[in-house]
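Pair request: fold both.
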Amino acid sequence: MSKDTTLTIRLNKDVKAHASEVAAGMGIDLSTAVNMFLVELTKTNELPFVPTGKSNFPDIWNDDPKDIAAFNQQIGIMADGVSHGGENTD
């Protein structure tokens, strides 16, 4: 594949260092890893992975209702459904 353009990105230096180590462990450099990502993105028209990560918000489909109630109380929504001023209204 011809490489006739450059992509410049800004990212956290720790993320770059860790990603470089992971890629090196796979026998590739970071540029190759990014190229692989972009090629897969364009072939499938979707991310080649499922985004994951911790969230402060409960997964309402799987969490215990008691956990959801506790979270609602923490942000100011009581069991009666009334807002008590702690939730984000954005």
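--- second member of the pair ---
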Amino acid sequence: MNIELTALETRVLGCLIEKEITTPEAYPLSLNALTNACNQKSNRDPVLDLGETEVQAVIDGLIRKFHVAEQGGYGSRVPKYRHRFCNTEYGTLKFSAQELAIVCELFLRGPQTPGELRSRASRMASFADAAQVEGALEGLAAREDGPFVVRLAREPGKRECRYAHLFGSEPVPVEAQAPNGEATAVPPAGGDRLARLEARVAVLEAALADLRERLGAPPAG
């Protein structure tokens, strides 16, 4: 698997995938609709405040990577965008409905436990029980054309391990051997929520700084 995405690219793709499934009547999305979707206060972590210029720059990059396509329509003067990331005739990357819902949620919210994924991804695909979520995650981790997800080490005081996607936007720690010999991932030093949030903010700030530089915009104050 050689798909590398930035944090903002996964946010844009996650929004396109989500809206295609949950509101097909409003899909594909205009720049304004996609910007609003990226900045939603629900079903997003972290919550962002992107401008249309920033989102357009991300879209342009995804178009160059053939992950997004612009779609015009007769009588429509507003460009609209759809993803070509997976499950299309343009590429070989295919997911089941359950796998796609899980990948989408990881794009929109970052690392999550199977229980969280079952609750949140159920709006896009049906899961009979937690075992189905874990089965889909294990399949994504073991795919020959992947892996697409990794199980992180269980945090102190937590009952479940979290899973992260492996498309490049999350700073997934290096793998190590757990005491039982099972390959897992080591959380950032300290392993607390503040450290994880700071790491994610740093990734987003770097991505925004890169976009501003390419657009010739002044640094954020």
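Observation on the second member. Confidence is low (pLDDT under 50) at residues 171-193.
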